[in-house]
């Protein structure tokens, strides 16, 4: 199959870029694959890109040229914010090529993208014909103009019928799929295909487990880092190693029991993961699918995850991991520490990883999605 994978890079590299490159690498093993990318700019060029977001004719022409030269059987789009925009789907429809869209966030239903504002969950945009309250608050970067233009872009294409003609929306969790259905965008159930992220199993070696917990990720508000540090800054708390960086880095120094390691390469991360007692994922936003979850499960590590995260749906509390209230969980950690079946719980978590989140399992799902939408398009003539 000839597959064109399209992605819009943000100004800073993030998890969506990693997923894009990872999937392309695996697709190339069994398909003929080419990519088309866009890059968000700063300054006046970025302003022009943003103003063109609702209907970017230049991006549409760029895709048309790529289609003409490559003749893909399927187009798979990742991010479209903001240098490309929804015109990509209209071009695919005009060329009668089936198109899939991976939803890495909730931007289609709320311009905040994370359903998160002012350090709390923000759900008021869901189901609205237009999210005026979100615009009034400036939920995107505290900017009313940016919030309005982003909301207008997605609502415009609901009114134009663009979303009703996308062949496959691919949310990362069933929870995200339900939110999409409630978004008042004209999307039908048969357009939604749930497919999670994956990672290649990390190299496992038997290491003596130490008593520390580990956090891997960006040091930012939505990740629950304030609450994480507050819970571990306690005489009764265990030791916490923190891998990552971000705007809340300054909160870490001089905290009891907290060791900030900064950004580390993959080998170093694996080294610390192998020795950790548990991986803790404390996000206070409806995060999609944090890779730290899969990294921990792949190495048979105990997973302790915030109940706020959409991906926590794969954790059965006390069976293959633990769910916590991210605001106050020190007492929960103490209760967990008293259990004698923690190794068995971690093993069950590892089995969930093997059953559902290896490259082979997830890429088989993606190949099936491609085949379904290709067959549907052929049946439509």
UniProtKB/TrEMBL annotation:
Residues 47-199 form the Glycosyltransferase subfamily 4-like N-terminal domain. Gene3D superfamilies: Glycogen Phosphorylase B. One of its GO terms (molecular function) is glycosyltransferase activity. The keyword Acetylation does not apply. It holds the Pfam family Glycos_transf_1. Residues 206-337 form the Glycosyl transferase family domain. Keywords: Transferase. The keyword Transferase applies. InterPro entries: Glyco_trans_1, Glyco_trans_4-like_N, Glycosyltransferase_grp1. This is Glycosyl transferase group 1. The lineage of its organism: Bacteria, Pseudomonadati, Bacteroidota, Cytophagia, Cytophagales.
